[in-house]
């Protein structure tokens, strides 16, 4: 029997099952059953056909209860003549975490468009928390069909921990990169979404696990020598080239960025010894490490350096040792050596949440191999500045860091893009973003809460960071106490009039009014914000809270119901959050009225029983008055 005959028979054997699967997928789509799988979905806004974000996109890669949301997107399908449409691709650092209104995309859009002039640039926030390059390729493919003129790529922090990565806690199964593209392709099928709950039932995994932040990955530590890393690096390079091939196919321009991370002000999250040390060597290493710590605390820098160097001669693979030695070099006024050691500590960190040296080497190499690609070397630009001024944690930008990145991108874009206005000053940049003491305090509060949990709470000097955050929160609270809310409302109204297409001004003002307990004023503002921010659960929850708080349980329930169907788990999440918050405020009657209105109007939706439980659960005090 020859190979051709064998392959023919194999094809006939597979033809039947493939035809059944194809028919099932076609039926699901024809009847509009299951959840949409594309990154963008079509919608109508004020009679205009638009592309908006698909809130269920994350269900393809995450268990539904832990799924991350794309950023709010609303772009006209018919492009405005003369306007350039750019899309920012990446992960949470690009998306704007911890405050999505201060994303790279929104900051760059402010930087590229002169106030009071016709908008020349439209910048889409196509980044997403906790994803990595296999998912970014899929997003890029979807965006290439929606009239995007260029990509700005800022990714590389999540290659290990993102979906299908060797250190992930998100997807199950073997992480062999050769199968990743096929696994991503299979998630495009609605049939896959239908079959996943059945597979979970068979495996006994259920669907109860909610998102747990960075501490979910505590057990997934990879040393620098881990054999799973080289295939992951090759996959990252291949995925970068796949995005560039898409851009070439659709005649799009690409600005590829190196990834800056916090080296000097962020101790490693995890460390490991060399695997071949004897117990006697470990004891000697521990003594030297202890002596170095004591000497540093007492201000004896030379003695600390000597002890750390002796430990390093025995084991140069321990990330925290190398970081502490870098700190000593910095205080001995050896900044170049300190920077080198900080970078080495980052590469040795066994909890690999930061883009490392190899990731950035690949980015530079891919850019050099593609003459049409423009490189924005953000890592090198940041190396000349203080990390603590640029980041709020290990990778996410402070407002000053965001300004610096947007300034670099503004200068790097170059041809073929239209002539751009002069870059904004920092003050003008922050004013156009409407960065207020309230928004800064919210960011600081979020970071305080994160630093109280793993893996931050075991980091060297985390206590200092927590003290600084508390001082920052107190300072901002004092500023808020002396700020007239009426003047803030006027400033937002003027800004919205000058920039009517901005999606976030109403959300920002509504958040301030709710913090100040001005619920009657907040309700209509937040309703407007919910209309602008399609599929953004947080703002829908806050708008529903404002309506229920002001005696409008029916409209509050209706606002959440209008997010579907389908609802996924978002309706239960938003409703449960609204009920819990109302009860914490002492508004038990409002919570009960809202619950009745929602359950009466919506007899069926996923996790409905959780809403019922929230209505009957005992009340606990709120975690923080500022949130």
Q: Can you tell me the overall shape?
A: globular
> What's the tally of helices?
26
Strand content: 5-15%
Q: How far do the termini sit from each other?
A: 71 Å
Which strand order does the major sheet show?
5-4-6-7-8
Average pLDDT for all residues: 92
Helix percentage: 40-55%
Strand runs, count? 8
Radius of gyration: 26 Å
Low-confidence region ranges: none
Label the structural class. alpha/beta
Main beta sheet, described?
A: 5 strands, parallel
Q: Explain this structure to me?
A:
- By secondary structure, this protein is an alpha/beta fold.
- 53% of the residues lie in helices and 7% in strands.
- It has 26 helices and eight strands.
- The chain has helices spanning 3-30, 92-95, 104-112, 133-143, 180-186, 190-203, 229-249, 279-297, 301-314, 319-331, 335-348, 357-369, 378-382, 387-390, 399-412, 426-433, 437-451, 462-481, 485-498, 505-515, 519-532, 537-549, 553-561, 570-584, 588-601, 608-616, and strands at 40-45, 48-53, 74-76, 84-90, 121-125, 150-154, 253-257, 373-376.
- The strands form two sheets. The chain has a five-stranded parallel beta sheet with strand order 5-4-6-7-8, with helices on both faces. The protein has a three-stranded antiparallel beta sheet with strand order 1-2-3, with no helix packed on it.
- Strand 1 and strand 2 form a beta hairpin.
- Helix 20 (505-515) packs antiparallel against helix 21 (519-532), helix 20 (505-515) packs across helix 22 and helix 24 (570-584) runs antiparallel to helix 25.
- The longest helix is centred in the first third of the chain and has 28 residues, at 3-30.
- The protein is globular and about 70 Å long.
- It starts with a helix and ends in an 11-residue tail after the last helix.
- The model has no long low-confidence stretch (mean pLDDT 92).
């Amino acid at each position: 029997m020859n190979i051709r005959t064998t392959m023919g028979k194999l094809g006939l054997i597979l033809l039947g099952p493939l035809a059944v699967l194809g028919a099932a997928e076609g039926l699901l789509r024809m009847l509009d059953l299951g959840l949409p799988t594309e990154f963008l979905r079509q919608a109508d806004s004020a009679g205009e056909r638009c592309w908006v974000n698909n809130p269920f996109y994350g269900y393809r890669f995450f268990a539904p209860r832990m799924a991350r949301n794309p950023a709010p997107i609303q772009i006209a399908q018919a492009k405005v003549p003369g306007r350039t449409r750019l899309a920012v691709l990446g992960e949470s650092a690009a998306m704007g975490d911890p405050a999505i209104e201060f994303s790279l995309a929104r900051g760059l859009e402010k930087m590229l468009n002169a106030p009071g002039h016709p908008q020349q640039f439209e910048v889409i926030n196509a980044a997403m928390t906790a994803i990595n390059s296999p998912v970014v390729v899929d997003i890029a493919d979807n965006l290439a069909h929606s009239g995007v003129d260029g990509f700005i790529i800022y990714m590389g922090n999540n290659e290990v921990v993102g979906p299908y990565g060797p250190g992930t806690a998100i997807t199950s199964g073997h992480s062999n990169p050769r199968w990743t593209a096929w696994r991503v392709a299979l998630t495009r099928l609605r049939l896959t979404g239908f079959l996943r709950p059945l597979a979970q039932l068979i495996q006994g995994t259920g669907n109860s696990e909610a998102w747990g932040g960075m501490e979910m990955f505590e057990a997934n530590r990879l040393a620098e020598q881990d054999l799973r890393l080289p295939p992951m690096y090759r996959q990252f390079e291949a995925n970068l080239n796949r995005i560039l091939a898409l851009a070439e196919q659709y005649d799009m321009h690409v600005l590829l960025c190196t990834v800056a991370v916090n080296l000097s002000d962020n101790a490693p999250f995890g460390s490991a010894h060399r695997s071949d040390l004897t117990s006697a060597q470990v004891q000697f290493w521990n003594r030297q490490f202890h002596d170095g710590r004591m000497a540093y605390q007492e201000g004896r820098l030379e003695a600390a350096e000597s002890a750390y160097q002796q430990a390093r001669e025995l084991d140069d693979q321990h990330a925290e040792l190398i970081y502490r030695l870098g700190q000593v070099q910095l205080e001995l006024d050896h900044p170049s050596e300190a920077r080198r050691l900080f970078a080495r500590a980052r590469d040795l960190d066994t909890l690999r949440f930061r883009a490392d040296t190899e990731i950035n080497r690949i980015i530079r190499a891919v850019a050099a191999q593609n003459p049409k690609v423009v490189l924005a070397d953000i890592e090198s630009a940041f190396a000349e500045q203080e990390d603590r001024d640029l980041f709020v944690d290990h990778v996410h930008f402070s407002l000053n860091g965001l300004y610096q990145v947007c300034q670099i991108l503004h200068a790097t874009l170059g041809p073929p893009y239209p002539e751009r206005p002069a870059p904004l000053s920092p003050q003008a940049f922050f004013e156009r973003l409407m960065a207020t003491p309230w928004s800064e305090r919210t960011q600081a509060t979020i970071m305080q809460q994160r630093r109280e949990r793993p893996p931050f709470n075991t980091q060297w000097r985390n206590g200092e960071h927590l003290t600084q955050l508390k001082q920052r929160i107190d300072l901002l609270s004092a500023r808020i106490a002396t700020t007239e809310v009426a003047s803030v409302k006027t400033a937002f109204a003027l800004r919205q009039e000058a920039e009517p297409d901005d999606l976030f001004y109403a959300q920002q003002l509504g958040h301030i009014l709710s913090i100040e307990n001005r619920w009657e004023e907040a309700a209509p503002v937040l309703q407007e914000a919910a209309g602008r921010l399609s599929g953004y659960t947080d703002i829908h929850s806050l708008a529903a809270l404002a309506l229920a708080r002001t005696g409008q349980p029916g409209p509050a329930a209706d606002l959440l119901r209008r997010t579907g169907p389908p609802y996924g788990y978002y309706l239960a999440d938003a409703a449960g959050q609204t009920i819990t918050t109302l009860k914490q405020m002492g508004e038990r009657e409002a919570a009960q009225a809202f619950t009745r209105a929602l359950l009466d109007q919506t007899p069926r939706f996923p996790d409905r029983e959780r809403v019922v439980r929230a209505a009957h659960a005992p009340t606990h005090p709120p975690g923080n008055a500022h949130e």
